[in-house]
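Predict fold of LysE family translocator; 215 aa.
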Amino acid sequence: MFGLALAAPPGPMNAVIAEESVVRGWTAGARAGLGAMSADALFFVLAALGLVAFVEQFPTVRAVMVGAGGVLMLYFAYGAAQETGTTFREAADPDDDSAGFTKAFVLALTNPYQILFWLTIGVGLLETGTVDVLAHTPYLGASLSNLLIVETGSPALILGFFGGIAVWVTGFPAALVAAEQRVDSFAPAVAAVSAVVLGGFGVVFVWDAVRALAL
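Predicted 3D structure, encoded as tokens:
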């Protein structure tokens, strides 16, 4: 539940996964999802080592990371917009498939939402206590608080957390590909929505970084 709550809401990472899935197929979509999940695994290791707090202590470093993430999102939005005329059956160059993992991994490392998660509740996963799972769902947390409380500090919670993410990053691309194979216009529509989502988040993140660095 925790992993799914973090991975499922619409956002820049799912926009990348969706674009890769409908343009290049399930393998590319799942690979992109695993790229995002690998970034979470890296953040988890850094949290366990106590290194995640470094970002919190240096606001300028965090602002630069946010700005870099915003620029990357704008770049990927441009790429998604170029693919609005592509269908799954027209299949992009197979050599491009491997880029999905790198794209999602780098984007996740500079995604302010993931950075903030690991600075706060992510660190708390390692300590004995409780956590309000759904309260930390991106964009929807305030309305879902107190619905699911779990104990932290348990290996089972960590395994379940990453297990939930794995279910999403493999199942979501499969559902998209299945839908695209039934509707020829589905891939261009998803690519267009991905471009809008990435572009919107990119503008917001760049603006936040500029304001933070200007202070």
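The beta strands are 129-132, 149-152.
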